[in-house]
Amino acid sequence: MSAESFEGSSPEEALPAPDAPAGSLPAPDAPAGSLPAPQQAAGALPAPEGSAGALPPPMERFLAQPAQMPHPTYYPFFLAMGVAFIAWGLIATWVLTVGGLLVFIISLIGWINILRHEH
């Protein structure tokens, strides 16, 4: 197929009609650039009239965030540092491993204690 065979045709003319089988060309009387109407999926409930894009009342919406955020804490940072020192100590020396293990245990106990006493 050469480039001359495409002269005079627009991209819209190459789109098939909504009810046409796959691989067929659109009907010549279809307006250029028109989109097919959306079809309802099988088994879907019909939408009430005038409800397209309508939001539920404010009291029926779900909250995007929890009602109460937890308090900020440094325990996750020290927990990660303990893991890093444990890994570094496995490569270098047992002293770093023991220090990392102590930091890890203390921060884990502290973080769990805070989470247990939240309201």
Query: What percentage of the residues does DSSP assign to strands (E)?
Result: under 5%
Termini, distance in Å?
A: 73 Å
Q: Would you tell me the overall average pLDDT?
A: 74
Order of helices and strands: HH
Instruction: Characterize the overall form.
Output: elongated
In the predicted model, the low-confidence regions spanning at least 5 consecutive residues are: none
Structural class: mainly alpha
Alpha-carbon Rg, integer: 32 Å
Describe the largest sheet: none
> Helix amount, in percent?
25-40%
Overall strand count: 0
Number of helical runs?
A: 2
In short:
By secondary structure, the chain is mainly α. The chain is built from two helices and no strands. The radius of gyration is 32 Å and the shape is elongated.
